[in-house]
Give the backbone structure.
Amino acid sequence: MLKGILSVLLVLVTLSSAMGKPEKTTPKKEKRIPQTLSRGWGDQLIWAQTYEEALFWSRSKNKPLMIIFHLEDCPHSQALKKAFAEDKDIQKLADDDFVILNLVYETTDKHLSPDGQYVPRILFVDPSMTVRADITGRYANRLYAYEPADMKLLLSNMQRALKFLKTEL
Amino acid sequence: MLKGILSVLLVLVTLSSAMGKPEKTTPKKEKRIPQTLSRGWGDQLIWAQTYEEALFWSRSKNKPLMIIFHLEDCPHSQALKKAFAEDKDIQKLADDDFVILNLVYETTDKHLSPDGQYVPRILFVDPSMTVRADITGRYANRLYAYEPADMKLLLSNMQRALKFLKTEL
């Protein structure tokens, strides 16, 4: 189990050695800006902190969960974040009808990486805790990747996740 | 596995039905304050978001991990938070020598609840990913609970966690 967690985490290490916590070279006296759960993906949205919390809210509110895997120093993640945060339709639908979670570390649940651990990728999980691997983006080699130009597709996929909810549950 | 997660989460539900996400009765137009990872336990400290992330940082920085389990609507948690945030020695030691994580949801790792899932409680984990169940507070019936008056004991326990690090690893 411990080795499992480590191996999952180490996948991201080579990609992310410069991200995350500032190094101690930062002058101690400098006032830090408190870290937010949104990490810039929508400061006005209410984000779950952990996968466990998100699953609980999804189940108790009967709302689908949208999980965004990203990295702070990945330009594709940054570009997608900007488009996502600026898209009013996506922000509103996320606020009204989804439980949302953004993560810079992988979880131990392999269902959340159906075709590998890459960033950025977006997965939907329904309140029965089933990962909706059938809701995919535009790219055959990275099924859950989105680019800034794909916001309409992402919105439509969010609507699909809601439709599944009504017709299947 | 899924049922396991749920049962873990449900332990907290009865305690926490009023906490977490504001209900939708909040006026939509009201500007929300972005949620922070610190949740008031030290806005100037750098907090891990998830247990997986915290374990990674603990291992890669060779620093012990301190995990605080708490609830927003628990008066004991709130009182401890105030004492913790205002204690300069604890804040400095946490900033310099610890990886820190505060959680309002339980993880699936049972090692983090050696004598049950209650709040507030504080556990130490060393970089070898061993939960230091031997570092306890003052109360025999809740070994990992601390009260605001226990800040000296908590500081001393943090120093113990660091000492273990040097002598045992």
Observations:
- Residues 6-26 of chain A have pLDDT under 50 and may be disordered.
- Chain A touches chain B at residues 2, 5-6, 8-9, 13, 20-22, 31-32, 34-38, 43-44, 46-47, 49-53, 55-57, 59-60, 103-108, 129 (CB under 8 Å).
- Residues 51-162 of chain A form a domain with the Glutaredoxin fold (CATH 3.40.30.10).
